[in-house]
Automatic annotation (TrEMBL), chain A:
The lineage of its organism: Archaea, Methanobacteriati, Methanobacteriota, Stenosarchaea group, Halobacteria. The keyword 4Fe-4S does not apply. Its cofactor is pyridoxal 5'-phosphate. This is Tryptophan synthase beta chain. GO terms for cellular component: cytoplasm. The gene is trpB. Residues 59-374 form the Tryptophan synthase beta chain-like PALP domain. The keyword Magnesium does not apply. Residues 380-401 are annotated as: Disordered. Its EC number is 4.2.1.20. The modification N6-(pyridoxal phosphate)lysine is found at K93. Coiled coil: none annotated.
From TrEMBL, chain B:
Belongs to the TrpA family. NCBIfam families: trpA. The alpha subunit is responsible for the aldol cleavage of indoleglycerol phosphate to indole and glyceraldehyde 3-phosphate. It is an enzyme of class 4 (lyase). InterPro entries: Aldolase_TIM (IPR013785), RibuloseP-bd_barrel (IPR011060), Trp_synthase_alpha_AS (IPR018204), Trp_synthase_suA (IPR002028). Its EC number is 4.2.1.20. The active site is at E46 (proton acceptor), D57 (proton acceptor). Gene3D superfamilies: Aldolase class I (3.20.20.70). GO terms for cellular component: cytosol. This is Tryptophan synthase alpha chain. Tetramer of two alpha and two beta chains. GO terms for molecular function: tryptophan synthase activity.
Length: 428, 277
């Protein structure tokens, strides 16, 4: 079948996905689609073998699936942590960045660009670019530059240029707009390393494939270590790259419940007058629209203007979400839930104190959902069939929280959090 | 207003197609600006309906869009504004796909097209809608006699040009350069290459992206274009002006300057068979 016959369905997940980009980018998107099919799907020139070897040698994979003994005891069911915080760079982001920078290399591109919010994807791209000797420029909102200084230092240390974006609120949405504009000018020699399962086809599928190593390992580890599949997999969802990575190989296992935990921020809903959502719960509360190249669920006004989102976790602070996740939610395969800023901060401290693991604020949302999950399990004490609390649960710890310590200390001081340490030591 | 009105605007020689953002800085001002552009010699008016994430636009138009949104422009107010306009030049609405979709509750784009046609919109340009995703909008435009104008970029392959021409109506917007919108100081070599690559067809070719001076307009028409699109230069003039009146004067003058460039190219031209019409 020729391309022109198949193209109308390119990258569609039910009603979501597609390729909503300016014409100037379409040839590049088509070129990428072709490269994705050849190198990633067909392993041309041994690309996937090369990628996997580099994930191991540079990325430190596989990451462990480790039992959280103290949390398991607390909740009365086994909790296993998929330790993406142990990937080189401290987050799952490298799985995708390494894959895409390597692909750019195979495609003969001379330069990579990326957008970043919290700086994790920018850092991962800068690391991969340094490792693979590829010039790299990162677009980052001015607000994010100011609140994520350590990551800016990391990117600069890897010799990536950091281009500040001053328009709008100076966060991820604006940085993404600007990266797309750069790409529209430089598309012939530049690859745009999108940081999540968002954007025009083939990005959502390709990023998911690079990230699906998470669930590929977790599924195998569950079989080896537990002798069974988990009852549920829990992952946080902003754009949704760690979510799709953690879910993908479990989607066909119908008995495994999949929970996408969004940022409930300081409250649900949209304040229409201010064009502001005090949350980032697009999957659970958003409506269908088109943003950054794909049809998906968005936080938007009735007229269709995209609103500013909010989360204490910069990495979840995005008004859109991956189209495949939106589709899996519509199908009832993935359950969208949310956890507010307070609960995420409490979970940050809980995991740090109970298990000796400092989770990223993003991942803290997934950890926090265990509280609701345990409450549901307690209610379901009878009845037939599988139910919450019967078996082991996997929580994807998508990243480590060292980057968030400033925010956590500042935000914890404003709240009454049971597990938060005092910082009396600083007062002399 | 209809598809034919858009095409007819190219009948008496190459057309001038200025762009401003509706509601920048107010709906009343836009009304005055559109009239001034028509007086200055505009043959078609491209009126931007502002969207919060204008990925195809450069800094100048982004700022104009920001000013319009801050001043409260919405799709409904935009259509009221178009309804109130009193100009002969056909109005082409340039906006992003999400606004069309949300006008139909996120489900469909026909409600927007129908309402826009009724308000007097003759054509649509949707820069984030490539031909692959355009079936639904094309059907709605055909149903309500609204031109669907596509952009052809310097990167567009011959196969894509063919696909685009199958769906396009009114005119074809030839993007003269890589990147986003914005005034430049010269005419890109890409412009001539772009025009050379395009097949002779039924639709006029209008060239834009970077046009700000008389000589650009002249050079573009000499290069074989059937129309000249200019946006950032007008949006800049609006941003710099101290009053609605002085902005309107500046717009009228700039439109007249570009129209004169088009005319100069016309009169210099050695008679030859019509190239693209």
């Amino acid at each position: 079948m020729s391309r022109s016959e198949t193209v109308t369905d390119a990258g569609k997940f039910g009603r979501y996905g597609g390729q909503y980009v300016p014409e100037v980018l379409m040839p590049a998107v088509e070129e990428l689609e072709d490269a994705y099919e050849r190198y990633v799907l067909d392993n041309e020139d041994g690309f996937m073998d090369d990628f996997r070897a580099r994930l191991r040698d540079f990325g430190g994979r596989p990451t462990p699936l480790g039992k959280a003994e103290n949390l398991s005891q607390k909740y009365g069911f086994d909790v296993y942590l998929k330790r993406e915080d142990l990937v080189h760079g401290g987050a799952h982001k490298l799985n995708n960045a390494l894959g895409q920078v390597l692909l750019a290399k195979y495609m003969g591109k001379e330069r990579v660009i990326a957008e970043t919010g919290a700086g994790q994807h920018g850092t991962a791209t800068a690391m991969a670019a340094a490792y693979l000797d590829m010039p790299c420029e990162i677009y980052m909102g001015r607000t994010d530059i100011n609140r994520q200084r350590p990551n800016v230092f990391r990117m600069r240390t890897h010799d990536a240029a950091v281009n500040p974006v001053d328009v709008g609120s100076g966060t991820l949405k604006e940085a993404t707009n600007e990266a797309m504009r750069d790409w529209a000018t430089t598309v012939e020699n530049t690859h745009y390393v999108i940081g999540s399962v968002v954007g025009p086809h083939p990005f959502p599928t390709m990023v998911r494939d690079f990230q699906s190593v998470i669930s590929e390992e977790a599924r195998r580890q569950a079989a080896e270590q537990l002798g069974r599949l988990p009852e549920a997999v829990i992952a946080c969802a902003g754009g949704g790259s760690n979510t799709m990575g953690a879910f993908h190989n479990f989607v066909d296992d119908e008995d495994v419940a999949l929970y996408a935990v969004e940022a409930g921020g300081s409250g649900l809903g949209i304040e229409t007058e201010e064009e502001y959502a005090p949350n980032s719960a697009s999957l659970g509360t958003g409506s269908v629209g088109v943003l950054h190249g794909a049809k998906t669920k968005l936080l938007q006004t009735e007229e269709g203007q995209i609103v500013e989102s909010h989360s204490v976790s910069a990495g979840l602070d995005y008004a859109g979400v991956g189209p495949e996740l939106a589709h899996l939610v519509d199908q009832g395969r993935v359950t969208p839930v949310n956890v507010d800023d307070d609960a995420a901060l409490a979970a940050f401290h809980r995991l740090s104190r109970e298990e000796g693991i400092i989770p990223a604020l993003e991942s803290s949302h997934a950890v926090a959902y265990l509280e609701q999950y345990a409450a549901t399990a307690a209610e379901q004490t009878s009845g037939d069939g599988p139910r919450a609390g019967d078996g082991p649960v996997i929580v994807n710890v998508s990243g480590r929280g060292d980057k968030d310590l400033d925010t956590v200390i500042e935000e914890s001081a404003k709240r009454d959090l049971p597990d938060a340490p005092d910082m009396e030591v600083f007062r002399s | 207003m209809s598809v034919d009105d858009v095409t007819a605007a190219f009948a008496d020689g190459p057309a001038l197609i200025p762009y401003v953002v509706a509601g920048d800085p107010s709906a009343d001002a836009t009304e005055a600006y559109v009239e001034a552009l028509a007086e200055g010699g505009a043959d078609v008016i491209e009126l931007g309906l502002p969207f919060s994430e204008p990925i195809a636009d450069g800094p100048t138009i982004q700022e104009g869009i920001r000013r319009a949104l801050d001043a409260g422009m919405t799709p409904a107010r935009y259509l009221d504004l178009v309804r109130d306009l009193d100009v002969d030049a056909p109005i082409v609405c340039m906006t992003y796909y999400n606004l069309l979709l949300q006008f139909g509750d996120g489900d469909e784009v026909e409600t927007f097209v129908e309402t826009a046609a009724d308000a007097g919109v003759s054509g649509l340009i949707v820069p984030d809608l490539p031909v692959e995703e355009s079936a639904e909008l094309e059907a709605a435009c055909a149903e309500h006699d609204v031109a669907l104008i596509f952009i052809v970029a310097p990167t567009t392959t011959p196969e894509r040009v063919e696909r685009i021409l199958e769906r396009a109506s009114g005119f074809v917007y030839v993007q003269a350069r890589m990147g986003t919108t914005g005034a430049r100081t010269d005419v890109s070599e890409d412009t001539y290459e772009s025009l050379d690559r395009l097949p002779e067809g039924d639709l006029p070719y209008a060239v834009g992206f970077g046009v700000s001076e008389r000589e650009h307009a002249k050079a573009i028409v000499e290069g074989g274009a059937d129309g000249v699109v200019a946006g950032s230069v007008f949006v800049d003039a609006i941003a710099e002006a101290e009053s609605t009146e002085s902005a309107a004067d500046a717009l009228r003058e700039k439109a007249a300057e570009l129209a004169a460039g088009i005319d100069a190219a016309e009169s210099d031209e050695t008679p030859e068979p019509e190239t693209t019409k």
